[in-house]
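Worked example 2:
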Amino acid sequence: MGGKQRDEDDEAYGKPVKYDPSFRGPIKNRSCTDVICCVLFLLFILGYIVVGIVAWLYGDPRQVLYPRNSTGAYCGMGENKDKPYLLYFNIFSCILSSNIISVAKNGLQCPTPQTVITSLQRELCPSFLLPSAPALGRCFPWTNVTPPALPGITNDTTIQQGISGLIDSLNARDISVKIFEDFAQSWYWILVALGVALVLSLLFILLLRLVAGPLVLVLILGVLGVLAYGIYYCWEEYRVLRDKGASISQLGFTTNLSAYQSVQETWLAALIVLAVLEAILLLVLIFLRQRIRIAIALLKEASKAVGQMMSTMFYPLVTFVLLLICIAYWAMTALYLATSGQPQYVLWASNISSPGCEKVPINTSCNPTAQLVNSSCPGLMCVFQGYSSKGLIQRSVFNLQIYGVLGLFWTLNWVLALGQCVLAGAFASFYWAFHKPQDIPTFPLISAFICTLRYHTGSLAFGALILTLVQIARVILEYIDHKLRGVQNPVARCIMCCFKCCLWCLEKFIKFLNRNAYIMIAIYGKNFCVSAKNAFMLLMRNIVRVVVLDKVTDLLLFFGKLLVVGGVGVLSFFFFSGRIPGLGKDFKSPHLNYYWLPIMTSILGAYVIASGFFSVFGMCVDTLFLCFLEDLERNNGSLDRPYYMSKSLLKILGKKNEAPPDNKKRKK
């Protein structure tokens, strides 16, 4: 019966890998895979470059970096280089207008003449001046200034509040200067903290070969202890409330969730849940202890692999640089596209009801370089209005931005896929080296990098495109949810939440499938679909081992991140807050305006460093695990088909390699 059941499982998830006498690790003789996807990806990248060139030709990022006066001239540039600030003739027109801040494309535009602060010419002077302070290149009045009497404005409080709002929202100069000063004072100590994080991460991974077993045991016992304490605490709360007679029937239904803490049924339900979790974990330890031992042995083997190929620990720097290039290119392209268009000028008058202005076509196009001949309308000017949305490029800006977003997601996912495939190739060469370290290639990381780029760019692009489409769908769904949030009924919100949950699960599954597919690509050199299928079938034939290894690895890496980030955070707090006594003059903490700023920077940097190191280690564990499963299926320990796994794994599994005849004679 058991044999029949195994045969049915083989049919459902494929048959075990057959022995191949020519297989000795990652395939050397390869051919290009997913060529069509490779061509499409390269054509897309070429189009992405064309979009960037078009954006560079037609865009002008100065529109968001520098203010412009009423004639469209930039302040602080060209002939106005020594005039960096913009002055509004009537700032209260900005305060009382419906659209106070519009800096996305046209800058802060107000229905009032604007001029360079030192440029005061006849008929171009403001009717009043107020003490001002610069903010984002513009002059805004002080909040304690008493404004002059203006027609149509009777409430000074409104003006004061408007000025205060502008100052609070725009004038961040003092804070930014203080932040800059803090970074200037503490940057080298931040680098020291990041160096400590790097050393801790590396030591943690390298020492796992010695302490992986005891550490996993301590962590599991710690989880059991926490659950046991939770059960005890819930029981005490339940007993006290039971003696008081506090029941949910007395409380009834309420939206105040904190009220349920005062009823006995809440603590009884929590007690039952924690008790079930405790029982499940104990059963797992009892019945899956062998698989936990295998997981620990694989973690030790991964630590050895990293120790043999230390260059792999610094590959995340390559990934980081490539990701930074992709993000910077997209950001610059998006900025240039958003600022494309020719400046538009219209006729404007301060008082269109004045005699002589009735026949003037206000708000019609004009030429700022031409002299206005209509002198009967006082204050008539040709002022800058905005940027034209006409023309082929301007009409296509939205579509080009969508193309750019798709390019951002696709290139980012491709870079991440490249890193996974390269690391998988390097670590696979370690596992399939029968005599370690003699049989390990000289430059495994470089060889894997060249091989991946040469043969498997299309496969990586295929997997990255699938993931990109799912992520774009999630972004669209989030956008729709945000726009319709105020008008949805509960049923619609429930449906939207279900869709978002399904897409989230789909994205997680695709990431998992892609990751293992890239490992199979690095080993066998087959296309994406075949590699994904083989990886999925292999994992499904060993699903229990997959779950155990995944959870043990997650627990261990979580503890490692907690150790690195927590250690750096505590050290940074005591150092930058000046709470470490006895430091010499050379190690005295700097005087800072905001001591929490370098602390948070150190913690964030430590998390990034730890995540980079542990991502390499996680990829190593996953690669060795797939190789281990393949090793079990294709080999049997005979002289012709020896196992490639370590002696510790052979011992745990109760297997061994058959010794050569000459070795047997020596033993006798």
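The chain is about 60% helix and 5% strand. The longest strand covers residues 381-387.
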